[in-house]
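User: What would this chain look like folded?
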Amino acid sequence: MSNDEHAFGRRGVGFGIAFVVTGPSGAGKTSVIGRVMKSLPGLSFSVSHTTRPRRERETDGVDYIFVSEDGFARLAREGAFVEHVVYSGSRYGTSRKQLEECFRRGTDVILNVEVEGAKSLRESGLGERPIVYIFLAPSTLDRLAERLRSRGTESEEKISERISVAAEEMKALESFDYFVVNDEIDRAVEELRSIVIAERSRVLRQDEATDERPAASSKDK
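Assistant: Here's the prediction, encoded as structure tokens.
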């Protein structure tokens, strides 16, 4: 068997894997995901819709797609989301059309969703697409509180509320495939990169190999 034939025995870049990254608010998911995407080929980011107010330095359509309550409700009724939840008084949802476009372009996709959103996606799935569930958080709630305070965007009351929510979210940890500890961002980035690489290196199962998806990309050989 040649080296090229070996390459087609694994998933490879652009197989259509959905990497679902979740964790408490303020855990650093956006920063870690952004650096991983710059360092690996064939990754697209799913930009979530939300009704929460845009923060300073956030860009509509890049960090989130900011919509009104009415606009979000209409999209939900139309079935535009593969998952949608209410978190801390605001609504968040993952666009079905956006995911389909990413897969059609031949890329894998990273989703940044809430814990309840990951639970909802686990129940509904993405058809035949493989989904990898990753929980990302600091090692302790005290570290998370420090991170939230350093942002300088919320009151102590709001931070206490988020820590209480985070404590509940941590109870779902055992239902995830991986746990990335973000106490030091370089290490967290390397851990998430390693997960993406490992999942792309998985041996193809028979049912996956018969899909119309590419078994391997030329960038993966």
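The chain has one domain: 11-202. If you want, I can go into more detail on any region.
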